[in-house]
Specification:
With 111 residues, the chain is of the alpha+beta class. It is built from three helices and five strands; from the N terminus they run αβαββββα.
């Protein structure tokens, strides 16, 4: 299991993610295991895929979130275990991303 860096940015990300409604996550990409989901998310991100991605659960949030090499949370996507050998990748909708960014900025200013 990955360790999330204890930073102000990650704290603001978690607070912001907790405010995003469950209905604002969408996705239908299914893989047979967590590793394949993480590789897909990693290649989608700007991480370029040159390391072995890891994920963790965060108290109060649904699903698994990828942890970047520097310990930061990749918050645009999450993985949901549907059934045995069925893991679904979900991404925030555009509306959710806008809401997330506004909340993140608000929480960063408060810290």
């Amino acid at each position: 299991m990955a360790t999330i860096a204890q930073t102000l940015e990650n704290n603001a990300r978690v607070k912001s993610l907790k405010k995003i409604a469950q209905t604002k996550w969408v996705g239908n990409i299914i893989h047979e295991n967590m590793d394949k989901c993480l590789w897909a998310i990693n290649f989608y991100s700007n991480n370029s895929g040159h390391y072995n991605p890891t994920a963790t659960r965060i108290d109060g949030l649904t699903g698994w979130f990828m942890i970047n090499q520097d310990g930061s949370i990749f918050c645009e996507a999450r993985v949901i275990k549907e059934e045995e050998k069925q893991y679904k990748i979900e991404y925030m909708t555009n509306e959710a991303w806008n809401e997330f960014e506004n909340l993140y900025c608000k929480f960063i200013e408060e810290i």
